[in-house]
Amino acid sequence: MSNSTVISVQDLGKLYRINHQGKHANYGTLRDVLAEKLKRVFSRKQENGAATTREDFWALKNVSFEIKQGEVFGIIGRNGAGKSTLLKILSRITEPSLGRVRIKGRVASLLEVGTGFHAELTGRENIFLNGAILGMSRAEIRKKFDEIVSFSQVEQFLDTPVKYYSSGMYVRLAFAVASHLEPEILVIDEVLAVGDAQFQSKCLGKMEDVAKTKGRTVLFVSHNIPAVRALCSHAILLANGKLIGDGETSEIVDKYMTQDHTSSDSVWKRPLQQADRPTVYFNSVEAILTGRQPRMMMTLKIEFCCESVTPKSFITVEVCDVLGVTVFQAIPDGSPFMEFREGRYEATLEIDLPPLVPGRYTANLWIGPHYYHTIDQVKNTVAITIDESPVPERTFPHSYDNGHLVPPSRCELRRESY
Amino acid sequence: MTVDLPYSKTENPDSDFDLILEAGRRDKHYWLDLWRYRELFIILAMRDISVRYKQTVLGVGWALIQPVLNMIVMTIIFGKVAGLHSEGSAPYAIMVFVAMLPWMFFSSALTTSSQSMVSNSPLISKVFFPRMIIPASSVVTCFVDFLISLVLLIALMAVYRFAPSWNIFAIPALVLLTFLAALGPGLFITALNVKYRDFRYVIPFLVQFGLYVTPVGFSSSVIREKWGEKVFLLYSLNPMVGVIDGFRWAILGSNSHVDLRSFFISLAVIAASLYVGISYFRKTERGFADII
User: Fold this and answer.
1) How far is CA A169 from CA A124, A154, A409, in A?
2) In what helix (H) or strand (E) does residue A167 lie, and over which residues does it extend?
3) DSSP per-residue letters across A309-341
4) Is A8 an 8 Å CB contact of chain B?
5) Inter-chain contact A100–B20, Cβ cutoff 8 Å?
6) Where are the domains of chain A?
7) Which CATH topology does A263-390 take?
8) Does B32 touch chain A (CB under 8 A)?
């Protein structure tokens, strides 16, 4: 029974067509389409001119794997590797361009917490709304209602519109509903990255419970490698839309960590997501490392777009180690409160690096007008690799077990008594 | 293209699975799926109703004010200034209001359903459900407004001491017809609107224009008397001509009569637009998440 295949993916491919034509490339107005057609009628030569270039982009290609019943299945890979596209296909939000997927059982997907929450409605109403959107029946929600409420810890505010909730309460309520879903197959995307640490571990526990004691199949996408390690028995690794690893979690995680980090990592481009672009979004980032240890400088050339007037904002950069743990955060001087109007921008950030232990570090970028108001946030963008030790005369290897920073330090010895 | 798959098809026959996803594959259980998601339909409709008049002072009053003001203006312009006649002995105001009900229902249903997909884009890109639920449930609020103004009509008839005929029992069928008349173009436009946001400007224009080419402020018999039979039948290509004549027949009774040919022309137009709307919607809906 537990050996039967519940998801079989064969040769899956997803193609996106991108028009490189300025900012509204994805939903051109009818006028643009008509004008384009007219242009083509009148001058056939211009068709492959520079004005509009079409590019085929395979977000996924030739991906095949199988998932057995009762497995907790991890999907890992860098940004733009195709993880989210894969989940969107498996949860029927978008259709594949090639290949086929066969599924046995009811799938519920959780690509975001609080999908469909309505700010004007009360917590109680939103539980029913969100539950229904995620595929629960009303009878099912009613049965679990008390459990959901006590899990979320918002009992007193059940009849308050959620617009008056703190963001923590909001997330707790949203996750409480989601974690009481009991489909045969549960698809989860990075949603554990919310809430405080205590609540996160509660959610992880709940997920483990769903998978282990109830025999449900769970698909789990995350950058949180410790969580993947702890939960998943089996994992696949995606890179640039291709499947490059399929096996035991520990083996795949090792492969992910030692993945080729060559120069391609120093440039990051926004994955081609069509939906939900914030008003200001990071488009591309390039990292240039200069200087020598212990005084290295990381220059980030950031290109970003603004689609409508946005409150004055600032940029922060977090530098993380391979496990995704933040080593430090930089708030570049001069960036506080930049004003934006529609258009493309380029910013050059210079960050003096502290004396870092050799290894690979990635940058997370964030932009917003206030620390609690995020406009855009991109994780694991560019990566830098530091080979040199910050202590030139050091002869023994570094280990993360002793921290990430080796500050310049001195020792003066004096003999006080004879 | 034949590729050697690591997992051969014979190992797990298709019949083992409930769902197969493939490019361009038609859902076998499309209508069944729609039925399975009926609770979502109800809950989305309830959401729309309960947030509709939140943070407004007049609240439901808005559902009353609009048709009443429209009726007063139309009665004065068409009945008094232009001096057009009513149907039979029915008071002009009632004749106008009877047409105002389905027209307001039709126009607001068309407007909200064609905007619905874009205004629910976060849902479209994050969860799966039969997409048709969104435009269909958005129409329910319009239906509530319709019911409210129906109460107003009854009050108005009491004021004029105007007794309805037994034909009034045809109203539910006519309401359904109005809904279908709006759903066809609504589905078509909402699908287009996902790709071309131009249609957000088309609809208000269409609705405003429609008010003048639809016999709301006047009786459709005026058209026949002025331009003759042929023009009148041509005029019936406007699906709301048949619907409104139906409503007047149902409420005004013997004062009004429905031209059956005209009614069937309108019916045929409604059926055709419904067919076009549904098939275009189904053809495009699986790409919505990619372009919305």
Assistant:
1) 13, 7, 45
2) helix A167-179
3) -EEEEEEEEEEE-TTS-EEEEE--TT-SSEEE-
4) yes
5) yes
6) 14-59, 60-257, 263-390
7) Coagulation Factor XIII; Chain A, domain 1 (2.70.50)
8) no
pLDDT band at A15; cut points 50, 70, 90: confident
What is the Cα Rg of chain A in Å? 24
CB contact under 8 A, B39 and A138: yes
- The answer, for B13 touching chain A at a CB cutoff of 8 Å, is no
Encoded tokens for B253: 């009774």
Q: Which two tokens stand for residue A312?
A: 């004055």
Section A103-129 average pLDDT: 84
* Four-way CATH pick for A60-257: 3.40.50.11810, 3.40.50.1820, 3.40.50.2000, 3.40.50.300: 3.40.50.300
Say whether B128 and A99 touch across the interface (CB within 8 A): no
Domain ranges of chain B: 29-291
- A19 in contact with B at a CB cutoff of 8 Å? no
User: Cβ of A131: how many Cβ atoms within 10 Å?
Assistant: 26
Question: pTM of this prediction?
Answer: 0.72
- Residues sharing a CB contact under 8 Å with residue B266, sequence separation 6 or more, in sequence order: B236, B237, B238, B239, B240, B241, B242, B243
Candidate from B5, B18, B286 with C-beta closest to A10: B5
- Tell me which residues of chain B have a pLDDT lower than 70: 1-12, 26, 55, 57
Nearest residue on chain A to B200, alpha-carbon basis? A29
